[in-house]
Amino acid sequence: MTFDPIPYNLPLAFGTFLIALIAVSTIALIVGLVVSLLTVGTHGPGLVWEVMQRGWRDITQMSARRIGALTSLTIKESRRKKAFWVLVLFLILFLFAGWFLPNENSQMETPAKPFIAFVLTTIQWMTLPVALLLACWGLPTDIKDRSLHTVVTKPVRRGEIVLGRIFGYGAVITAFVVIMGVGGYIFIIRQVPETAQKQLVSRVPVYGQVQFLDRSGEPSATGKGLNVGDIWEFRSYIEGVTKASMTWTFKNLNVASLAKHDSLILENRFEAFRSYKGQINEPVRYKLTLVNNSNGLRVTNGDLVKGIAEFSDERVRKADVADAANDTSEEKFATAYRMQPTTVIEIPRNITYIDVSAAGGNQTKTVDLYQDIIDKGTLTVEVTCPDAQQYIGAAQSDLFIRLPDRSFASTYFKSVFMTWLMLMLICMIGATASTFVKGPVATLLTFSLIILGAYMRPGMEKMVLDYSRQGHVLGGGALESFYRLITQMNQQSPLPDNFGSRLIVWIDSGILEVLRQLRHVIPNFSYFNTTEYSANGFDVPLDAALLPGIATALAYLLPCLLIGYFSLALRELEAK
């Protein structure tokens, strides 16, 4: 995996939500006052106040019984629209999926991963259009057919109509997700090759903080190791037979819980870089040293020296077999040269090592991992490379403590739950948009928010972050980039010092400031995609994955209710 789970800061997120809610509400109130003054004159502010009072009364006095009735009607309407036919398409896809997924003879190192990714991705992309179309076209169709006119003549509040729609569509989507989720789980268990069944696990990692030391033993100025020329800068490297090292610090460990087991499991996915080929079948080695910073105890032995066999005998043998069969496919290349998968290191509780610093020469000693090495819940692991002119690369998430595994069902259904949360958010946004625009426009608006929040938000975040830190963006904003494009000017060259350049920079700064504020309004749909966890056999963490999605979905419920209520209350239903 290439991700580095970061715990979600819930207090900061809640504070940002309150600020954004107050700011948007204030802007809406100011716009409402201005429009009322322009349309009805001095009586406008009084009308705005009356609308606000009526809205507060209607929202605080909503009836659960009436909302339930409207929810039931929405479900019946969805059934009449034959929305449940999507389940038939889902079944057809699963009937023929086995033709295209790996079989028992596959040489993939993770043959279970495509099955898991296929099921979770299929659930997402088959239910997303259904949620989008149902939520965005329901109210406009009712208004066009005048069926909503019958509802509003009854003692039903506008907020109840909005919530009834959201809950109704949510109930339909919930049924889809439950059926597809259970069916997908059965499909995975039955179709994954028997040799890959052991990959259906839910590993529970504990990540630490990494620090890089350069070849002279000093902390790295950049906070990373060496760059060996790889265009992908996720991992950085340390040089062998120098003072360079990577040190992971695991804090706040539950020693009492760990001590129940006779060993501690470390798992890594280090990468090797060879400055010379050497013996191609011999791995590049790395050495782990367990350190107690309080008393200076350093423990290592032969069992903590491992190797990265990126050109193992087994892979070379498979490549030779492929050569004998005149196989020139990419699978042959991947089999022979793909990087070694994760390595599991089991550290026993009682570790025997040679103390080279002992008085009177080398002495063999035995220490207790939980009592002598782990200091006040903190474990320090130092990684070095004992091979001269070779390099070991890693990122912060490449070494972790592996707690006892959980069942695959736990991580799988957590991912299904996150998909359900995403669809509920789409139902909220789509139903809200349909209260003030027609179906096609509501669909376009909701789909645009999905694209912005899922795919374009990372670029927006990076641009805004660079602007906040440095006061400028490399290459400039939209106008400056366009100017550099038509004038064939590179990114590093300064702009001419004239009024036009200063105007371009000023406008771009304003656009970037708008983007900076829009970050707090556009939902971050990337929170809901946890397929990478389940497909790679990792547990979906609460603080880094589940909590952001739950907080995001709940945060949009109140704004959607307010916008939907006032839009529907102030809308002329006869205006189709």
Give the total of domains.
Answer: 3
Characterize the main sheet: 6 strands, antiparallel
Distance between the termini: 50 Å
What is the averaged pLDDT score? 83
Number of helices: 18
What is the gyration radius calculated from CA atoms?
30 Å
**Helix/strand/pairing class, anyone?**
alpha+beta
Instruction: Show unreliable segments.
Output: 313-340
Helix coverage percent of residues? 40-55%
Protein name: ABC-2 family transporter protein
Transmembrane segments: 12-38, 83-102, 114-139, 166-188, 412-432, 439-456, 546-570
Keywords: Membrane, Transmembrane, Transmembrane helix
Describe the model.
The protein is of the alpha+beta class. It folds into 3 domains: 12-61; 62-200 and 406-569, no CATH class; 235-394. Helices cover 52% and strands 15% of the residues. It has 18 helices and 15 strands. The strands form 4 sheets. Strands 2, 4, 7, 8, 9 and 13 form a 6-stranded antiparallel beta sheet that branches. A 4-stranded antiparallel beta sheet has the order 1-15-5-10. A hairpin with a 4-residue loop joins strand 7 (284-292) and strand 8. Helix 3 (64-80) packs across helix 7 and helix 5 runs parallel beside helix 12 (408-433). The longest helix has 34 residues, at 112-145. It starts with 9 loop residues before the first helix and ends in a 7-residue tail after the last helix.
